[in-house]
Design brief:
The protein is mostly helical. The protein is built from 4 helices and no strands. The protein has one domain: Non-ribosomal Peptide Synthetase Peptidyl Carrier Protein, Chain A (Orthogonal Bundle).
Length: about 80
């Protein structure tokens, strides 16, 4: 089965991963506008685990420099989608 590498497809994978791994469910639904630090309060380990899961899922490598510039789930989805194509 082909993995959906569109921004929307990647965003769905990110949201599913977070819903399965977050200790507490955020008050607001997860969307492209959800901010990683401010809205989810992910620590560095949780952020790393999310990125590692995406790298494994899409068979890509995301650089540390790139990770430092993403602020929202939509930003992550855009980066992963671009690298996965």
């Amino acid at each position: 089965m082909d993995t959906d590498k569109s921004r929307e497809g990647v965003l769905a994978v990110i949201i599913q991963h977070l819903e399965e791994t977050l200790d507490e469910t955020p008050e607001a639904p997860l969307t492209a506008d959800t901010r990683i630090a401010e809205d989810l309060a992910l620590d560095s380990l949780q952020s790393f685990e999310m990125i590692a899961a995406l790298e494994d899922h899409y068979h890509i490598t995301i650089t540390v420099d790139t990770v430092q510039h993403v602020k929202s789930l939509g930003d992550v989805a855009e980066v992963v989608s671009d690298l996965a194509r």
